[in-house]
Amino acid sequence: MAVSPEEIGLCGCWQVLAVERTSYDLGQPAASPTVEVGYYASSVTVDERDAAQMAAAIRGHWSAIENGTHYRRDVTLGEDACRVADRNAAAVLASLRNLANALYELEGDAGRTTVDTLRSWCQQQTFSTAWRLLRR
Questions:
Q1: What is the mean pLDDT of the chain?
Q2: Are the C-beta atoms of residues 94 and 70 closer than 8 Å to each other?
Q3: Fewer CB within 10 Å, N or C, the chain?
Q4: Which of 101, 35, 31, 40 is nearest to 49 (CA)?
């Protein structure tokens, strides 16, 4: 069913896309697959990108998240291994991980660090150096 973005309250958008994903639990081969639908709003017109190009853009977006931010947060900073049960504490820790990741990226982009991994960079930080970065 086609609807306009205005009809669903997303003024300024040119496309609303629904992407169906089927997931298989590789640890449970006999389990039924899980199907979910993700919705995307875009300011790109249909004339600018067709469905295949939009699908490629969505895959690229999620690939960057999985291979970039999520990898750093999970593998480098051990987010998935963290067993903090309190929801507020978990949110604070996630914010601190995002802050460390962002500061590392900013320092690298500005050429102020030669360290090539987030883990190495974090190990070099002290309160004083981190505070100096936050005050810039």
A1: 87
A2: no
A3: N
A4: 40
